[in-house]
Amino acid sequence: MSQLTATRKVAIVGAGAVGSTIAYACQIHAVASTIALYDIDFAKVNAQVLDLRHGSMFAPPVTIVGGDRVAVCADADVVVITAGARQRPGQSRMALAGRNVALCHELVPRLLEVAPEAILLPVTNPVDVITTAVLEASGLPAHRVIGSGTVLDSSRLRALISERAGVGVPSVRAYIAGEHGDSAVPLWSGAYIGSVPVSDWVAGGVRVFTDQVRGDIARAVTAAAYEVIAGKGATNYAIGLAMAHLLEVILRDQRLILPVSSLVEDFHGITGTCMSLPRLVGRAGAGAVEPVVPAPEEIEQLRCSAAQITKACRDLRL
Question: Where does the record place the Lactate/malate dehydrogenase C-terminal domain (predicted)?
């Protein structure tokens, strides 16, 4: 275990499918030396902690603790917030907003009492609205509140591009931006396979990523969570891996470009909105937005996406 890992604690609020899977992914990747699970349901959180501990022989050395009191999160470097109403089959993420915003307003001050130096990482949906609520409830500088945003959406996009192109996913660089939801925007203008723009990728003398194909891929990314939820009730494995990766980037100060949700200030006319854009992420939290210049139609789509998030926030008086 590295020295950086040896001094780090991650606290995860919510021991349901998402929270427990994030804990599991962090355990097997040795993201931190201590993983703390907090949930008001003592029987559930205790069972999750026991189950994780029972696999300790087969994973790197990580201390796993849990409980139904917020004190278990004390002195965490990052607090991941997954608690909240769960998305039901066919339900939009925005439909969850009211209940989950109220929960954040009650929970966040208590978390900061025990972990005042923590970076807060909301995962609860609708994540852009919840990120706004956490930022408001915490009073923290914007760089210390990082929503999970479209990190997972971008992974889905890269997987679909790689499948069509017949290359490994690591050879693809592409981002989903805007809302983590129905108005998400694929940034095709900045999408590459190796050093080749996705729109120029050719196989057998034929251009692969036509407008039709790109449209199909974009719709598949947006619909992905609905399909998983319809089949098994929740998404958990991919978001668990995505958040373990994001936590590793933060705790090990890897300074990678990731499409996290954070407060946007004057990006092509978008300001005062928490939404996803490719940003530099490291130990200090969410850094500068990548100096990307989307295509004109993408900028317009991003403005529309920002407007939807802003309206939802205003309706909730955020």
Answer: 150-312
